[in-house]
Amino acid sequence: MEIRNKATRIRLLEFKTPQMRAFHLSWFAFHVCFFGWFGIAPMMAIVRDDLNLTKTQIGNTMIASVAVTVVVRLFIGLLCDRIGPRRTYTWLLCLGALPVMSIGLADSFESFLLARLAIGAIGASFVITQYHTSIMFAPNVVGTANAATAGWGNLGGGTTQILMPLVLSAILMLGVSETLGWRLAMVVPGVVLFLTGLAYWHFTQDAPEGNFNDLRRRGELVEAKNEYGARASFGSAIRDIRVWALFLVYGACFGVELTINNIAALYYFDNFELSLATAGLIAGLFGLMNLFARALGGFFSDRFARLGGLKGRVRWLFLTLLCEGIALMLFSQMQVLGIAIVTMVVFSLFVQMAEGATYGVVPFINRRALGAVAGIVGAGGNVGAVAAGFLFRSESISYQQGLFFLGITVTLIAFAALSVRFPGGATSEVPAAAGGVVDRHQKPAGGYRSGEQMG
């Protein structure tokens, strides 16, 4: 699709323009989704005792929390193409609030598992966030915009680890038992999700010049079914080997982050014999790196592109993922709490920079199938988390061993990033008519106007 008047600058203190309203509300919406998605994780020590869960059962709930997101992410991008990111996000937030609040009704492993499975759907919010900023910002800043919104959204993984134990503590101070306390605590993120959905509906729009429905009525945006339909969009994406390379890459970075979000508090609670609040605080440091790390990955992706074009973006992606794998292996071997924390922070830095670097490449794979590409690559993160989940559900493999094996896997997958190449030696970020890229020395027929460079 051709979208005009994209923003060429990111003005963080600007809230009047539709581009910056979408920027701020998309990262905030993704941020609060983490409270629903992983709000239960820092309280798992209490839930484990309340529901008498084994390590294998806890591992199964971890897998469930990310498994359904794979399916939803595959199609949420196509839904964005169809009805626009505004309506898609609003429905996902409002409907997603229901299972978040109802998880407190779980009274057995089976009911708890089903609740976590249903909650996993809100993880697809990431795709909408990336989609919305991709159509609001021009190529010169899209990598930074995508990385900043996703990073500040992922920051929710850290603030959740810190704040949910505090919410629980506040409830317990009222004289409520732990058994009832964790259940009431999950109502809080559910309410916030619902209110955020209403805010998204009232304060954002699909594109710089209006909502998709209005643009189509005015003839400014051709109906997807007539020009480049959902089937063609999805088919084009799944036939592109580069999409699957990025699918693997994203599984090795975002998939790892989701895994750490699920196990970090329990890991520190058990291995270093800490209190629940202290374990949650330390685990939160991992996610708090998203405050700047993912944005830094996108920022450097844009800078490397100025020096080496699309090849520069790919090489930066490879470097960040390679360093992530090495840092994860080191973290898994740490036995001293202080050193473990420092190593985890360094590891977290590379995880999130790799995520930003991945989505610094995504918008340039196929502009006409942007939603499909973003959805497939985003789903890769959850497939990675599902695969990693099997390491941590096994009674015969310790968490430390699982982290070491995961580090080896990430290091190997880093080399898959180098297979992302562009046809005809293309290095420019100016799209060709077919939705790819053209050589930087070629001028598109008729030129292009600012704001029409990427769709």
From TrEMBL:
InterPro entries registered for this protein in UniProt: MFS, MFS_dom, MFS_trans_sf, NO3_transporter, NO3_transporter_NarK/NarU-like
SUPFAM superfamilies given in the database record: MFS general substrate transporter
Parts forming coiled coils: none
UniProt keyword terms in alphabetical order: Cell membrane, Membrane, Nitrate assimilation, Transmembrane, Transmembrane helix, Transport
Record membrane topology: Multi-pass membrane protein
GO molecular function: nitrate transmembrane transporter activity; nitrite transmembrane transporter activity
Listed transmembrane segments: 21-46, 58-76, 88-106, 152-174, 180-201, 243-268, 274-293, 314-331, 337-362, 369-392, 398-418
PANTHER family: HIGH-AFFINITY NITRATE TRANSPORTER 2.3
Family, similarity comment: Belongs to the major facilitator superfamily. Nitrate/nitrite porter (TC 2.A.1.8) family.
Protein name: Nitrate/nitrite transporter
Source species: Kushneria indalinina DSM 14324
Phylogenetic placement of the source organism: Bacteria, Pseudomonadati, Pseudomonadota, Gammaproteobacteria, Oceanospirillales
